[in-house]
Task: inverse folding
């Protein structure tokens, strides 16, 4: 029986097996320092192609463009090199052609769970919460912890739209005058 967390390991296993069949390395070494238009130097980070973020990015690209994984390897490398894991939200919005509301659309990284599926430690993230407070959640870096609950949010959204519609109609509709005031012209 597969669990919810198995889908993440299955995604990584599937992509790394395909990379192995293509004889592609699982890591891209860090490159030389690059300069931006202002003259600031920044290092080019190492890319781990066996990470969940890279596997998610390459899967999103291959499914959207309906191409093989081999054609999207460099695109996924560039995305994670330039934008990191939060760049998956940008990619998701770009592929959809509109901003994504993760209350209604499952996050491609955490599948709508809202927590970071890699379960990073506080030391890795540099949490400011004292070590005595254990087991605090780390939200997903893509959807920022939004839980995908479209039924719950849709009902609240429809109530809000109905309220705004009633207010707009009340503001637009002039008050009714009695028939006597209509007959008495001055």
Result:
């Amino acid at each position: 029986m597969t669990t919810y967390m198995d889908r993440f390991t299955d995604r990584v296993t599937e992509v790394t097996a395909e990379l192995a069949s293509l004889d592609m390395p699982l890591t891209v070494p860090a490159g030389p320092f690059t300069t931006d238009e202002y003259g600031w130097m920044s290092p080019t980070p190492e890319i781990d192609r066996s990470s969940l973020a890279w596997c998610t990015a390459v899967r999103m690209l291959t499914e959207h463009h309906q191409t093989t994984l081999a054609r999207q390897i460099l695109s996924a490398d560039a995305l994670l090199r330039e934008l990191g894991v939060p760049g998956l939200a940008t990619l998701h919005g770009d592929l959809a052609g509109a901003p994504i509301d993760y209350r209604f659309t499952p996050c491609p990284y955490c599948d709508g769970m809202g927590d970071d599926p890699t379960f990073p430690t506080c030391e890795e993230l540099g949490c400011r919460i004292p070590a005595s407070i254990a087991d605090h959640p780390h939200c997903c870096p893509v959807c920022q912890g939004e839980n995908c609950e479209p039924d719950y949010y849709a009902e609240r959204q429809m109530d809000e739209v109905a309220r705004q519609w009633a207010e707009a109609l009340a503001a637009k509709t002039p008050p009714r005058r009695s028939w006597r005031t209509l007959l008495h012209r001055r």
